[in-house]
Structures are given as C-alpha cells and as structure tokens.
Design brief:
- The protein is of the alpha/beta class.
- It folds into two domains: 58 residues, no CATH class; 259 residues, Rossmann fold (3-Layer(aba) Sandwich), CATH 3.40.50.720.
- The chain is 40% helix and 18% strand.
- It contains 13 helices and 15 strands.
- The protein has a seven-stranded parallel sheet with strand order 3-2-1-4-5-7-12, with helices on both faces.
- Helix 1 runs antiparallel to helix 2 and helix 2 packs across helix 4.
- Bound molecules: NADP nicotinamide-adenine-dinucleotide phosphate.
- This is NAD-dependent epimerase/dehydratase domain-containing protein.
- One of its GO terms (molecular function) is isomerase activity.
- Belongs to the NAD(P)-dependent epimerase/dehydratase family.
Length: 332
C-alpha cells in the first residue's frame, strides 16, 4: 500500500490510532511545507508506516533540539567538508552541522570546530535537510553504494550536493572543457566509472553534482605531491586545473544554499597551467624548503583547460584565489 495510491483518510482509518496521529502529522508537515511534496512523491514506494515512523522521529528531534531547517550533514568531513561546515555555521549560527565519518579518529577535532561527529551507520536521526557528500572514493569498497546510502539521509527539503571530480571529463588534449563537455564513456576506466555511477545516484533523486578540479592549499595538493617526489616521470606539458580548498568550500556552500535540483556544476579557478608552470611557480616563490628538480616524462596524456563561466554566472560566485601563482604570491 503506497501513500500516493490511497487517499490519506482511508489509510488513517485502516491503521491503529497511534499511526493515524502520525498521518495527521505528515499532512501538517506538507501544509507547512516542512515536508517537500517532491520528496513525498519520491518516497511513494516506501511503505506508509515507515514514512510515519520517520515523521515521528523528526518531531521528537525537533522537540528536543528546536528548529532543524538549516541543519547540514557533511558526509566525509575532511579538509573540504570541515571548511564547508565552518562556512555554513557562520551564516546559519543557530543550525547544527553533523560530520559523518568512518572512524572516530578525528571526532575530537570535529567537536572543537562545532561539528557534531557521527559514525557512519550509527545515527538514529537519518533525515537532514542539507547534505553534502565530501568523502573521496579511496578506501571505499562500493563508492556508489556509499553515495546512495547518503542520499537516503536527505529529507528532500534543502539540497543535496555530491563533490565529484573533473576527472570524469573525456578530454586529454589540453582543449577547452566546459560544464557540459562529454564525459569518459563507461567501461574505459574504473575510476571514472565509479564517479559517474555515484553522480547518477545523486542526480536521479534530484541532488546536485559539483565536478571539482585539483584541490590545494599551501601544504596540500598536486604541487606538494611533486615537491616531495623531487623528480616525477610524467609529461610536463600536461595542463592541470586547480581550485583552492577555501574557494571550493565557498562554492559548495553557495550551491547548497540555492537549493538546486539535478544540476551539474564545475569548480575551478579558471586559470589552467601546465605541470611545468606550476612547479616553476613553486620554486620561484621561495616559500618551500624543498626544491622541485623536474619532470622526466616526455610523452603521456595531456589534460584539459576547464572554464566554469556558466557555473559562476548561474550561481553568482567567484573564487578568491584567482590563480595558483596569485595564491603563492599572497600566502605567507
Ligand atoms: N583532493 C582533490 O584534489 C579532489 C579533486 C576533485 C574532487 N575531490 C573530492 O572532494 C572531496 C573532498 O576531498 P578532501 O580532499 O577534502 O577529502 P579528505 O580530506 O581526504 O576527506 C576525508 C574524510 O572523509 C571521511 N571518509 C572517508 N570515507 C568515508 C565514508 N565512506 N563515509 C564517511 N566518511 C568518510 C574521512 O573520515 P575518517 O576520519 O573516518 O577516515 C575524512 O574525514 C571528495 O569527495 C573528493 O573526492 C577531491
């Protein structure tokens, strides 16, 4: 028996008294628009009783914690996820931000940042108006399933955002790459298959995707990887695209807050540069104790030149760090 197939009054009469109270609550939530009709349609295959159970749980939660409408769940509160959480708390000081992890290793740090830590699979409250998935595929046996599980933690109200990667774009000749450029065909690479399957899980429930370029900050990113190696056997002419962690976080925050449905965005600083140029900037800056020696490769796949003008215009966002070179110049 499904919510959408049977009139509510009939259903309520056919279940026990306690359950009819839950039914009324669901109707009230719909009237108050705290329960999104879109979400109700999406949940039409869920047995009515489980919708009711969730509603009662949400009521209990709201009773003990006050309003929950801007609450955010960060799945994978690593470097990016924590920055998104901090940004969110700044603009929504009365909301709660939850950080869902696999291990308890960083729960102390999360708590100190004002993020309520939750272990994956342990949370009794499983419905959040805003959800961002920031856990990388590494270390996950079934990444699309992890992402699917996170979509079931979204209430369907605010918005859901999945942080994907620009690796899904099928471009390896240093050509221009836009939001709607073709993606790598399924079956060519396990890495991109996994990302595209995860994206599909999100888009099919009305969530959004942001395909991020290489994330960096002073002590983390591709420049640090090359610097630690000293010499790397890859092609120096390969074009890479970057976005500073802080800018990626502000981009994610804006996308989340605008409550889009089923959009694909692109996150980059718009200043692509070759590997060679990036490491020359690092050496020139004099800000790192190591010196990069050089690239040993001569051939190899080239990259792409990402341009996210469409994303910027649509959401009204600009990165603060306009290029890697500018960042190195101003960082201390
Ligand atoms: N780094 C890049 O250049 C880049 C480029 C494009 C896209 N991205 C995407 O951007 C996002 C953020 O990257 P990041 O560098 O900020 O990541 P990160 O710092 O490595 O984040 C790791 C965090 O994810 C948690 N985690 C890992 N698997 C999890 C799971 N299955 N469920 C819940 N938590 C899990 C870890 O928790 P524990 O403490 O429990 O291990 C940790 O808190 C990721 O989605 C990544 O794929 C990154």
């Amino acid at each position: 028996m499904h919510c959408s197939a049977t009139p509510l009054p009939f259903l309520c009469a056919s279940i026990k008294r306690k359950e009819s109270h839950l039914c009324l609550h669901r109707t009230l939530l719909l009237k108050k628009k705290t329960l999104n009709p879109w979400k109700v349609r999406r949940m039409s295959t869920i047995p009515f009783i489980s919708v009711c159970a969730r509603a009662v749980h949400d009521v209990k939660f709201m009773d003990s914690h006050g309003s929950t409408e801007m609450d955010l769940l960060v799945v994978g509160p690593g470097v990016l996820g924590r920055l998104v959480a901090e940004n969110w708390l700044k603009v929504n000081p009365s909301c709660r931000v939850y950080g869902q992890t696999r291990t308890m290793d960083h729960h102390g740090e999360l708590g100190r940042l004002g993020i309520k830590p939750i272990i994956k699979g342990s949370d009794s409250r499983n419905c959040f108006p805003f959800v961002i998935f920031c856990a990388p595929p590494s270390g996950s046996e079934d990444y699309p399933a992890e992402v699917r599980a996170a979509t079931s933690q979204w209430s369907g109200e605010g918005s859901f955002l999945f942080t994907s990667s620009s690796a899904v774009y099928d471009s390896n000749d240093n050509r221009l790459c836009l939001e709607d450029s073709p993606t790598v065909p399924m079956g060519r690479s396990l890495r991109t298959d996994i990302l595209l399957m995860a994206e599909a899980e999100v888009l099919k429930i009305g969530g959004n995707v942001v395909r991020l370029a290489g994330l960096y900050k002073f002590d983390r990113g591709p420049h640090m990887y090359y610097l630690k190696k000293g010499t790397v056997d890859v092609c120096p002419e390969h074009i890479i695209n970057l976005i500073h962690y802080e800018d990626a976080a502000s981009l994610c925050k804006v996308i989340l807050a605008k409550k889009y449905r089923g959009h694909v965005f692109m996150g980059c600083d718009g200043c692509p540069l070759s590997r060679q140029e990036m490491m020359e900037e690092v050496n020139k800056s004099g800000k790192f104790k190591e010196k990069f020696k050089g690239f040993a490769g001569v051939v190899g796949p080239l990259g792409k030149r990402m341009d996210n003008t469409k994303t910027r215009n649509e959401i009204g966002w600009e990165p603060k760090c306009r290029s890697f070179a500018e960042f190195l110049h101003i960082s201390s």
